[in-house]
Each structure stands twice: as structure tokens, then as C-alpha cells.
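WARN retry 2 of 3 for item q-0093 after timeout on previous attempt; input resubmitted unchanged.
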Amino acid sequence: MYLQSAAVICLSVAFLGSLEGKGVQMQRDVQCCMQYSQGKVRTKDVLRFEEQTEGPDCSIQAVILYTKRAVKCADPRDRKVQRLLRKLRQRQAMKTHRTMWLHPHMNLPVMAEPK
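OK item q-0093 returned
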């Protein structure tokens, strides 16, 4: 019984560790990049992104990219990363614009009552 419990715990730790991208570490409730990931990331593979600032919890400035397969850390000063962020922000703006037209009643200005 004890061996089964130990095996389940070890497998759980190994599985959770495999979900984190290289250079991404979990600290309490904060996810931090400790180093930049290698390799290319396509715009269409990015589900969402966050900008990490340097501070007491995180030692470097980075962009955390949540892709379909992994979590990647990118250098925000890199020109390719800046271009990727520009494309992602444009995509976000297009989704917001499209959503406005899907729910027109939510975006209408409130008319003043006639006096």
C-alpha cells in the first residue's frame, strides 16, 4: 500500500513537472521565467500571453507565451518577439472588434430621457 502511494506521488510530480516549459518555474502563486526558451513560436500557436516584469519574485523581464504545446519564455527586447507581440495584439483587437458587433445591444450608448 505504501509503495503504491509513493509511486502515485512520484508519477504526479513527474507529470506536473513535464507541463512546465523550460525556464518556467512555479513559485507559490506566481509563474516566473528564469531564462529564455529556445526555438520559434508561431503566432497561430499562441493561446495567450503575459508580460513579466522584473521584481522580487521574478529575476528577468520576459514575455510568457502559452502555446498549444507548452509554456515558453521570450525576451521582450528581441525584434522577433516584438513583431510576434504586435501580431498578437492585433489579433486581440480584431477579436474585441468582432465581439462588439456580435453583441450590439451591449455597446449602445444610453440615451437621455426627454425632459
